[in-house]
Input
Amino acid sequence: MPTLKAGIKRESDLLAPVSGFARRKGFRFQHTELPFFEYRIDLYGLSRTSSETIAVELKMKDWRRALYQSLIYQLCSDYAYIAVPLTSARRVDLNALAVHGVGLIAVDDSLRCHIELKAKKSSEVRKYYREPYIELLGERVK
Output
């Protein structure tokens, strides 16, 4: 009998592996579908040890739209990533992401995450956007 691969069929299939990946990277406190302006941050996380935040935009294919949204998320998060299936990651212009400091997470068919490009710490983050989200996650801002 052949084994079935988990595979990624919908954007929502990316959430569990990316959330687990973020937890393993130290972002233990997470919130999904967090409203920010007219968008919703798919995954927002906080590291208790470093007090740094991460925002991840999940997309199946449209990495350009994810990049646009991630640029906005840099106002409220220390690090911004887009996460796409591995097959879509091959089509992403890594130079375009690198110029803006946005990272790329690729999720393979076995639902394992790979950092294709590490995000740079945002110089655009604003306390008045970031602090309420940290409080929402149940932490005090230092």
